[in-house]
């Protein structure tokens, strides 16, 4: 089953003083096990462009649509047997401590 894993910042990071997991080790482990199909960090929100259409009019604005301190900073496409496996993959990502991870299955359309 495929899951989109959104890697996000958070205003309340973990306060555990132990060293954070290494992101390169996390990527290598999950690539090797075939659980991570692709992923990438995203550019700063200042480079974002928001596109909307309202009443037939194109509205393009700089930056993210929402003013928020919590932003998506990266993504990974996971292939996992089930949600439990996806949670285990997310749990070991460094940003699970420094930020937050959102897992979302793809819709069956």
TrEMBL record:
Pfam families: YCII (PF03795). InterPro entries: Dimeric_a/b-barrel (IPR011008), YCII (IPR005545). Gene3D superfamilies: Dimeric alpha+beta barrel. Residues 34-105 form the YCII-related domain. Belongs to the YciI family. This is Transcription initiation protein.
């Amino acid at each position: 089953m495929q899951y989109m894993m959104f890697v996000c910042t958070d205003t309340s990071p973990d306060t555990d003083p132990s060293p954070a997991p290494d992101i390169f080790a996390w990527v290598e482990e999950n690539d090797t096990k075939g659980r991570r199909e692709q992923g990438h960090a995203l550019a700063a929100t200042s480079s974002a462009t928001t596109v909307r259409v309202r009443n037939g009019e194109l509205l393009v604005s700089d930056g993210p649509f929402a003013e928020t301190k919590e932003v998506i900073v990266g993504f990974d496409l996971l292939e996992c047997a089930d949600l439990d496996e996806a949670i285990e993959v997310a749990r070991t990502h460094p940003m699970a401590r420094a930020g937050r991870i959102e897992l979302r299955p793809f819709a069956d359309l």
